[in-house]
Design goal:
The protein is mainly alpha-helical. Helices cover 46% and strands 3% of the residues. It is built from seven helices and two strands. It has helices spanning 14-19, 27-36, 43-47, 62-73, 88-100, 105-108, 112-118, and strands at 50-51, 82-83. Helix 2 crosses helix 4 (62-73). It is globular, with a radius of gyration of 17 Å.
Length: 125
C-alpha cells in the first residue's frame, strides 16, 4: 500500500494507533462526522463546499478519492464537491500565520512541559 492510504485507513499505521487513538477514523469519515455535527439546514452546502488545503492534498487522485469516499457516506440527496485550489499547498501556512497573529494564540499553545508529560496525544485535548 502507499503511505497516503493511511489518511483513509488510519488502522494501517500501527505507530499512530498504539500512541493515540486506536479507533481513529479516516479523513473522509472525519469530514462526514464534522458536517453532521453542524445544523441540518447547512449540511447540504457544506457537502458541496469541501475545500482542500495543505501539502497532503497534493497526492495524485486525492481530491477525487476524497470526493468519492464522502459521497458514499453522505445522503444520496446531497451533492458532494471537493474543491482543490491551486494555492492549497500554502493555505495551511497562511491560516497558521493568521492564527499566530491573534492575541489569544499563546493560550492555545502546548508548552514543552505539557508535551513532555503527555507526548503527541497532547494535540487531542
Amino acid at each position: 500500500f502507499l503511505i497516503p492510504e493511511t489518511l483513509f485507513q488510519p488502522s494501517l499505521s500501527a505507530a499512530y494507533n498504539n500512541l493515540c487513538q486506536p479507533n481513529s477514523v479516516g479523513i473522509h469519515e472525519s469530514v462526514h462526522l464534522s458536517i453532521n455535527k453542524c445544523d441540518s439546514d447547512i449540511r447540504k452546502h457544506l457537502y458541496n463546499n469541501v475545500v482542500l488545503s495543505g501539502g497532503n492534498s497534493l497526492f495524485p487522485g486525492f481530491r477525487e478519492r476524497l470526493e468519492r469516499e464522502i459521497s458514499l457516506l453522505s445522503p444520496q440527496t446531497n451533492q458532494v464537491k471537493v474543491i482543490a485550489p491551486q494555492e492549497r499547498k500554502l493555505l495551511a501556512w497562511i491560516g497558521g500565520a493568521n492564527l499566530a497573529s491573534l492575541s489569544v494564540f499563546t493560550q492555545m499553545c502546548t508548552s514543552k512541559q505539557e508535551y513532555d508529560e503527555s507526548g503527541p496525544c497532547t494535540s487531542h485535548r
